[in-house]
Amino acid sequence: MKSKLKDVLDKVALIAGFGLILGFMNQGFRESLGATMNYLFGPLTVFPVYIVIFILAMVTGLYTSLMQKYTIDWEKTRHATRQMKQFQKELKEAQLSENKHKLKKLEEQKREIMEMQAEMSKQQLKPMAYIMLVTLPIFGWLYYLMFTLCPGAGIVLPFYGLKILATDSVLKFIPVWIFWYALCSMSVSQIIRKALNMGGA
Predict the structure, then answer these.
(1) How crowded is residue 185: how many other Cβ atoms within 10 Å of its Cβ?
(2) 101 and 112: one domain?
(3) Which residues share a beta bridge with 174?
(4) Is residue 200 assigned to a domain?
(5) Total-model pTM
(6) Domains of the chain: total
(7) Are residues 85 and 104 in the same domain?
(8) Please, which of 42, 139, 142, 164 could form a disulfide with 38 given CB 3.0 to 4.6 Å?
(9) What is the pLDDT along the chain (201 residues), one digit of tens a residue?
(10) Residue 63: which domain range?
């Protein structure tokens, strides 16, 4: 019964998650979503905008890491990663030495390795729907914050100086607010993943 309920919830989350992704491509939807989420996140605007982005990046980084921690079998993932690395090493050595017997043996193992890769990909995709259900509404509000509430907010970045978060870009094409969010989120996620002993190595 529990398994069936979980499967139903996974499917609902998947449909809702992809529905949000499709809706997010529409500007009107993004603005409506942002305005709705403002009831929840509006009080954060007492802080400077770059601090608000950092706070929300921490929230999404923590939530994403926890979802991955408890939906992915990391022991199985680490084992599969080690096996695939060993397979690649042996394959390279056999090719260099032109060991036909070894190559034939490895060819027989190839299907098993491919199945393992497919299983790992499935494991990684499992939490994505739930992650999107939290991340996209937050992004919707950040979009609303950038372009409706505080379009002139700035940040001082090393090597770039003062930049307007909403309208300026770094690395030629990346909007500053997305760059700052990604930088904060990745930094926080790495710390959390290390603390939770997550990773496939």
Answers:
(1) 21
(2) yes
(3) 170
(4) no
(5) 0.77
(6) 2
(7) yes
(8) 42
(9) 666 776 677 777 778 877 887 888 888 888 899 999 999 999 999 999 999 999 999 999 888 888 888 777 777 777 778 888 887 887 787 777 777 777 777 777 778 878 777 777 777 777 887 888 888 999 999 999 999 999 999 999 988 899 999 999 998 889 999 999 999 988 888 888 888 777 555
(10) 2-72+127-195
